[in-house]
Amino acid sequence: MLHPLMSGTDQELAEAGVLMNEQMYFSLSSGLIALGNGMTTWDKLPKVPMGLLGYDPTTQALETPEMRCHTLVRAAVAAQANATVLSATALTSSAQVVTANLNIPDSVPRVLGVKATAAGAGSGVVTLQGYNALGALVTDAITLSGTTFVSGVVAFLYLTAVYLPAKVSGSPSVSVGIATGLGLDRPIAQASDVLMVERTALGVWGILTVSTDYSVDATHWTVTPTTLTAGDNYRISYQSMFL
To answer: At a CB cut-off of 8 Å and minimum separation 6, what does 51 contact?
Structure first.
């Protein structure tokens, strides 16, 4: 399906397998790139990572990579929950992989967590595998701790597999849920790249309040509010070298 904003030449480019990104059209297969109203070939472009290319629509020239400001809206987020991604699954005497019925109950990248139902799970490691906001395959290895919910660090947009450890004793089960971390959709270099976090409380519309009650993990591009209430809306302003 074509993007609803595409028309005419844009559609033709899309049908040829070209990706649209801020008036830039890339085609590695055809070797063409359209800049504004002009076209050039891929081999004439500077060899820098595609995600870092900047474009000045006034001069139709490529810029030196620089920080770009972005605004991310997280609407009606889901609260932290112990088993909303994978319900309690019994551990066995052997390690196992679960790939079915994995559901992240949010339309945005979320940090996930794990929880055991009994001490018999020991300090085994649960490894989560899936995709982040950029479509890259990522993993998060989380060590169980008794029956406490343990948060991971990676924000997943899609989860494809959960690797469960063997049990130590008894009949423990392990579940996977969502933690309070919200994922950004572009990399950041440092915590100060998050410029502002605003939120509206559940049921309060149109009133944004600046929040300072959060932490930033620049390595994994996440913002974690200290308290996250189901239905809250967040607007996160940040800077990144990616378009």
So the answer is: 242, 243
Rounded to the nearest 10°, the torsion over CA 124, 158, 117, 121 is -10
3-state secondary structure of 11: helix
Q: Which amino acid is at 95?
A: A
Query: Coil, helix or strand for 13?
Result: helix
For residue 90, the enclosing domain spans: 81-182
- Please report whether residue 3 resides in a domain: no
Task: Please state the domain count of the chain.
Answer: 3
Contact of 107 with 180, CB cutoff 8 Å: no
Average pLDDT for 85-89: 96
Per residue in 158-193, pLDDT (tens digit) is 999 999 999 999 999 999 999 999 999 999 999 999
Q: By three-state DSSP, how is residue 236 classified? A: strand
Give pLDDT tens digits for 44-85: 433 333 344 444 445 444 444 566 788 877 778 888 999 999
Last residue of a domain, one of 150, 166, 182: 182
pTM over 0.85: no
pLDDT digits (tens, 9 = 90+) for 124-153: 999 999 999 999 999 999 999 999 999 999
**Residue 60 in domain:** yes
- Report the SS3 class of residue 201: coil
Of the residues 134, 153, 182, the one at which a domain ends: 182
Spatial neighbors of 206 by CB under 8 A, at least 6 apart, are 200
